[in-house]
Amino acid sequence: MKLVINCYSVWFLNSCQFKVLFTMTIALGVLLCVTGIATAHSGEEEPARFRVIPRPKVEKYDTRNIPLVSQGEDVLIQVSGSTESQAEPIQEGLALLSDRLDILGTTNTSLRKVPGNHHILIDICSEEELSAILRNEGVKEKLDKRRLSQTYYLRAQQSQAQDPVVTLQACSDLGLYYGLLTLCQLVDKDDAGRIVAPTATISDWPEIGIRLSKTSASDNELPMLRLFSDWMKVFKINMIGLQYHGGNSKAPEEPFPTNIEALCKELRDTGILETIVYFCPFRGGGENIKGYDLESFQKPGAYDLSKDADRKKYAVFLKWIMAQGAHGIEIDYNDWPGKGSDMESVINLVYDTLQEESPESRILFCPPFVHSEEGEDEITYCGNASPEMNTLLSKVPEKVWPLWTGTGGIVISELTDSTVEQWTRDAGRKPFFWLNRVGLELNKSFSRPVEEIPGLHAFHGEFLPENLNQLFEGIHFNAGLGPGYNNLGESFSAAALVYFASAADYIWNPHDWDAVESSNRAKRFVRVMQPLVEKRKLKE
């Protein structure tokens, strides 16, 4: 179904007769293997089928379901406010909602321009108005601008006269998109074939403003990268990393250039996901390159950034990446350090180059994983922040975010607030937390079985701190949705998607996270969203 959105436009979506998808509600505190716990923040009974993931910060339900329309009637949706009604995030969110209504039995969508008497109002407001709404709802936390731009407020109540049943408000197109994702999970169908929603009030925003998921732009073809990005959007991830894994940094092999050229532009135009290109200039020697090869920068195809000619060539390539629509660069020393090159000089070269092209660009820095001859940590992406790390970071701009994996290369035990705070004091700035092995089919995966739900694995949120926004600049997942670490395969299994949904749930709202509750919500999320994402794939 194709949606055409105009300001003060009304969408008519006819319902037809399918069987009820979900009819069971459960009492407060009852745990079922399939549906899980259905307890709303308000303490009232919540219909199990309406639980949303990522879990909203404040969600209040009662037991009444509100019919949007009776069988055979039209659902009217109006977009109003100061936004451009053709904004891509709003269009994409409405397209998902339309597809959801189609699955529930809606057919024959048509467009009419009627200024009132609509069922769903989608309204963009000012930051001040949204902040006032949150205060009126009892929200005491003051949100920084980055998180406020991703905030939405949704109210579903019995309609009076010309009032809408559902009102969705945000101060940005992205906030409205996130609210529409929530609405996709709220709408359902009852025994009489009516499109219904729960009586609910939801105030929602992310715990941390930057949530990044990385995959390989070298080991995957464009269709799978598009599918990966479509899933990241509905998981409410707002940034993806596209990494180079070839063996010739000076002339990157296909499909990396094609993927960067296509995907960065597409995602910038859509306005939902930012793209960060992960590029190591020290990969050389063709396909035989191996990790931890400290001499790899000297091999054919690798940059020697102590030479002026290579610095100029590297700067030209960085400008090409940004010209494709990327939002930033990750300076990737990682496991392929350019031994003998001056990291401070390289970081400042990247910064100065990007400042010329795009002053708002993001810059991440992945330190190498190396040790001194004496066995003491120097500048490394794991462990304590050394004096050398502090010295390096003191000589590069504040907007450069250093990646850090915690006390080890892989988190295998609890990471406390005090450990992170100590790293920040020692390094002189907050880290961008890099969480490795976020996937099911990986060695040392950051997952655990959910004993209460046989066959499922959940994100190991118990190992992580909850105050993400206070401790980190952002969160970075190495996302293993496919059969291999960087290989996405040809499709994503439901189990892998349920697992990743529990991870996205944690970083959106860690304070209310529970593995069983998150997994139950994730199961329904995948049932609802997988047909919508796959339908989009078939249209391409």
Low-confidence parts lasting 5 or more residues at pLDDT below 50? Answer: 1-47, 108-113, 288-294, 371-376
Alpha-carbon Rg, integer? 24 Å
Estimate nothing, just give the exact number of structural domains: 2
CATH names the topology of the largest domain as: TIM Barrel
CATH homologous superfamily designation of the largest domain: Glycosidases
Number of strands: 19
CATH domain class name of the largest domain:
Alpha Beta
Mean pLDDT: 84
Q: Tell me, what's the shape? A: globular
Strand neighbour order, sheet with most strands = 10-11-12-13-14-15-16-19
Number of helices: 13
Task: Tell me the structural class.
Answer: alpha/beta
Query: How can the largest sheet be summarized?
Result: 8 strands, parallel, barrel
Strand percentage:
15-25%
Distance between the termini: 13 Å
Helix content: 25-40%
Q: What's the CATH architecture name of the largest domain?
A: Alpha-Beta Barrel
Question: How would you describe what is shown here?
Answer:
- The protein folds into two domains: about 10-205, Chitobiase/beta-hexosaminidase domain 2-like (Chitobiase, domain 2, 2-Layer Sandwich); about 210-540, Glycosidases (TIM Barrel), CATH 3.20.20.
- Helix content is about 30%, strand content about 20%.
- It has helices spanning about 90-105, 125-135, 145-150, 175-185, 220-235, 255-270, 310-325, 345-355, 385-395, 415-425, 470, 495-510, 515-540; strands at about 10-15, 60-70, 75-80, 105-110, 120-125, 150-155, 165-170, 190, 195-205, 210-215, 240-245, 275-280, 330, 360-365, 400-405, 430-440, 445-450, 455-460, 475-480.
- Strand 13 (about 330), helix 8 (about 345-355) and strand 14 (about 360-365) form a beta-alpha-beta unit.
- The longest helix has 25 residues, at about 515-540.
- The two termini are about 15 Å apart.
- The model is unreliable at about 1-45, about 110-115, about 290-295 and about 370-375 (pLDDT under 50).
